[in-house]
Design goal:
Number of helices: 9
Oligomer: single chain
Order of helices and strands: HHHHHHHHH
Structural class: mainly alpha
Radius of gyration: 32 Å
Strand content: under 5%
Distance between the termini: 97 Å
Shape: elongated
Length: about 280
């Protein structure tokens, strides 16, 4: 037997790619075991982002969503802007509140009284925002944010109650709306300035994901609407004296809107204050 005729069995060379049982190379075979976990992970991330679970996870750690969106120097920059706009709002609305209370006493206007009370509320809400952002280390503190919102909600309820009671009283004794030059000036200034303040507060509140700032902006917006409503009710009464009740009705409507917002704020924020109280480390 010729030894050269025998077939020698050598081990397969690892550098040579062997076809599988289907005649395909491994590179051509889809790696389903790798694709399935990746797809599942992507689906979970999409579901979390769509349902807002990501922000809930951040809140459960005692932080606002802004902590994942803003760099430290950006957060501090926006915090300073929030402080500046709060101080400016306090000065403006305090002057408008004094003027509106004066008009309310002189003209017995339910809308001007409602605006004056809303202006005082705006001063208080801006002061609460000042407290909220007075501590630089607490810019992303969820507990501090929710606590400020609870205080705002309680103030909203008290203010709304006073506005509604005053408006109902004026309707019951049939107080007629009157507008002079002083009231006209106060109404125009309050409508324009409060609306501008509201826009700035909404923008800052959205960047800082601050419900307190957005609530403060909502209050400023209500003040702007009430400023214009005084002029509208007086103009309507001038052309149609049978609609004398429009001024008081607007006061009731504004009071109910503020009350509804305050109730919703308390219902949303009181449980969150309890959930995040263990994470407060800035006091």
């Amino acid at each position: 037997m010729d030894p050269f005729d025998t077939e020698l069995c050598y081990p397969p060379d690892p550098s040579i790619v062997q076809p599988n049982c289907n005649g395909q190379h491994p590179e051509q075979t889809p790696s389903k075991t790798l694709e399935v976990p990746v797809q599942m992970e992507r689906e979970q991330q999409m579901k979390m982002s769509e349902s807002g679970q990501f922000s809930d996870l951040v809140e459960n750690r005692g932080l606002l969503e802004s902590s994942t969106k803003l760099k430290p120097h950006e957060a501090q920059n926006y915090r300073k802007k929030a402080l500046w706009i709060s101080w400016l709002s306090i000065v403006i609305t305090l002057v408008l509140a004094v003027a509106a209370f004066t008009v309310s006493v002189m003209r017995s206007s339910a809308s001007s009284f409602g605006f004056a009370f809303d202006a005082v509320l705006d001063v208080l809400s801006s002061a609460i925002v000042l407290w909220r952002y007075s501590n630089a280390a607490a810019v992303h503190s969820a507990h501090r944010e929710y606590l400020a919102c609870v205080i705002l909600g309680a103030i909203f309820l008290l203010s709304a109650l006073c506005i509604v009671v005053k408006a109902i009283h004026d309707l019951s004794i049939r107080v007629l709306p009157e507008v002079d030059n002083f009231l006209f000036s106060v109404s125009i200034l309050s409508g324009i300035l409060c609306t501008l303040l509201a826009i700035v507060k909404f923008m800052l509140g959205r960047v800082l994901t601050s419900r307190a700032l957005i609530t403060d902006g909502f209050n400023s917006l209500v003040g702007g609407i009430m400023g214009f409503s005084i002029l509208i009710s007086a103009e309507v009464y001038k052309h149609n004296s049978s609609v004398w009740y429009l001024d008081g009705s607007v006061g009731i409507l504004i009071g109910l809107i503020i009350m509804s917002y305050g109730i919703k704020l308390l219902l949303d924020m009181v449980p969150r204050v309890r959930q995040t109280r263990h994470y407060e480390m800035f006091e």
